[in-house]
């Protein structure tokens, strides 16, 4: 059974930083493309960043230059380093995986999601 456990969220002031982690189980992690997504209240879930099996990355325009996605295949974990946080980054953050990169980019075909981790940026 595929499972994702996200952690590392919290309350941070504007301009602050957080590092999110997502531990995956039930998949051969190294052969899956990974994505971080977020859902703010009243909004649709959106892709924040993606990382391919060979380490190539892609970011939403709203987070380019501020967020960095990385992966550790030995730990079955994907990370999201978030710097220069803004109030509009407030959301529940999730990760997910697929062997098809287009599916990760689209973010709509996943059978299940983890519980997510809440990020709140507020003064």
Write up what this structure looks like.
There is one protein chain. This protein is mainly β. It is about 5% helix and about 45% strand. The strands form two sheets. The protein has a six-stranded mixed sheet. The model has no long low-confidence stretch (mean pLDDT about 95).
Task: Give me the secondary-structure topology.
Elements: E1 3-7, E2 10-12, E3 18-25, E4 33-39, E5 46-51, E6 57-59, E7 67-72, E8 77-82, E9 91-98, H1 101-106, E10 117-121
Parallel strand pairs: 2-10
Antiparallel strand pairs: 1-3, 3-8, 4-5, 4-9, 5-6, 7-8, 9-10
State the main characteristics.
123 residues; mainly beta; 1 helix; 10 strands
Low-confidence stretches: none
Element-level helix/strand string? EEEEEEEEEHE
Q: What is Rg?
A: 13 Å
Euclidean distance between termini CA atoms = 40 Å
Find the structural class using helix and strand composition: mainly beta
- Please describe the biggest sheet, giving its number of strands, its sense, and whether it closes into a barrel: 6 strands, mixed
How much helix is in the residues?
under 10%
Average pLDDT over all residues = 96
Number of strands: 10
Short characterization:
This protein is mainly β and 123 residues long. The protein is built from 1 helix and 10 strands, in the order βββββββββαβ.
């Amino acid at each position: 059974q595929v499972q994702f456990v996200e952690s590392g969220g919290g309350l941070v002031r504007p301009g602050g930083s957080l590092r999110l982690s997502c531990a995956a189980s039930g998949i051969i992690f190294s052969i899956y493309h990974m994505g971080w997504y977020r859902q703010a209240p009243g909004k649709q879930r959106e892709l924040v960043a993606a990382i391919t099996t060979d380490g190539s990355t892609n970011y939403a325009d709203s987070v380019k230059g501020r967020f960095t996605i990385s992966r550790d295949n030995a730990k079955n974990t994907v990370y999201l380093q978030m710097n220069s946080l803004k109030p509009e980054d407030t959301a529940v953050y999730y990760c997910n995986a697929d062997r098809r990169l287009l599916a990760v980019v689209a973010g709509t075909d996943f059978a299940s999601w983890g519980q997510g981790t809440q990020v709140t940026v507020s003064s």
